[in-house]
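Lab notebook: predicted structure, single chain.

Context: the supervisor wants predicted structures on file for every construct in the current expression panel, including those that have not yet been purified. This is the next one on the list. No modifications to the sequence; it matches the entry in the shared construct table.
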Amino acid sequence: MTSTTRTPAGRLLVRDARLPGRPETVVAVADGVVVGLTDADGASAYDGPGAAGDAGTEVVDAGGALLTAGFTDSHVHTVRTGFALLGLDLTGERSLTAVLDRLSAHASASPTAGVLLGQGWDETGWATPRPPTADELERAAPGRRVQLTRVDGHSAVLSPALAALVPGLADLDGWSEDGRVERDAHHAARAALEQLVPDTDRLDAARAACAAMLAVGLVGFHENAAPHIGPEAEIPLVRQAAAETGLRATVYWGELLALGTARRLGVEGLAGDLVADGALGSRTAALGRSYADAGGCGHAYLDAGQVADHVVACTEAGLQAGFHAIGDAALDAVGEGLASAAVRLGPDGAARLRAARHRVEHVELPSPAVVAVLDELGVTSSVQPLFDALWGGPDGMYAARLGERWADTNPFAALAATRGGLALGSDSPVTPVGPWAAVRAAVHHHDPRHRLTPAVAYRAHTAGAARAGRDDDGGRLEVGARADLTLWDCPDGLDADGLPVLAEPAALPRPRRSWGAGRPLGTTG
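Prediction complete. Output recorded below exactly as produced.
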């Protein structure tokens, strides 16, 4: 369920603002809801006793700055994001040596830490394109418990001291003698970490992540929790951190058929990172044809029958169903399962699925047939445009893993045209939180066929992301909508549609103020 401690606010009047695609310049808010959009001449209607401009009103002179609907990040791992912010963030390190040097320095600076967690290494651009090994971790941090997780979150490397704490690790699928773990071995290692990381550290991490989201202008996020990512105990901590910050948190739990758990946790759905496969970077995404740079087709976790069972159960329970699906084989299974669920639910099955607003995360390599199923059944695609910005193109990681198939990845335009629509997010800490960076990446997809217009991308990160969480009141700058708003400084100006100029090398907008249900969320700039 969505959580926030923000009660309906008093009154707010924003003057001299630029609104995307609208001629009005004044926004009036009362009781947490937008009650008026007008121009300077009409602003007097919201002045005076009992009106939006009376003595209890916060009056903001925007000075011509851009005012938008609030942005929601549709896919975040809050505690993992905080661990990256507070701990060892290896994102962007350009060599194996640099990663090991960072680990050594971190170990020296953290002599009492029970476990050293690093996140974000990506070997594809290194001169020596291979993961670190357990022996190298041991030399960098002798005797310490270390886990360094790859940027996609689907594989990691363990030090010998940490590996020794994971029962039966050597017998699990996905274990390598060099300390690399994926699949079952990776999940077991994460389970062992639950006993080593106290809840106080998890709460600190959640608070750091929420502060970072506020600082980039987000007003809400979707927490994609799952048992293979972190313990159930993290969910109340994430909600607490969001409430303290004022952010609107919508929480999912990615476990197959766990209806009792969903009720107990009060989550919006059994969705998010309920994995149908892994990730392309770790070569664990399930493909119909083998990887171009290695043998094998990755790993599928669910078949179409399991997908159908889950979707039917969630639909009947009033919950959203959803899946993490990246490779074409995994998406085929999800598409087949959704279609089967519609049949099993009876003559009105398709309509029931559309009403339930199920969702699929990532949707990186769907066939046209799968896109057609998503359209027919109103399933939302929750995507991360920075995946293409970082790893797309003829010379990127997708091309290395897939060959010419890279050009079919992340078909944003086709997904945006479906009835379920598109929701934009970050998958943080896989890519950084930052709504305008995601909008720009969607507009400048490496393949022109898949690009969005700035207006469509903006709506996918505001109204689209809110809708993906079954929130029809947020993400819109309209009379009657919840007053989730952000005021932005746009150093390089606005385009003809009143949106920021996004062409490189234009600077991205910087948030100046944000409001959730009309209440100030703090100074974000």
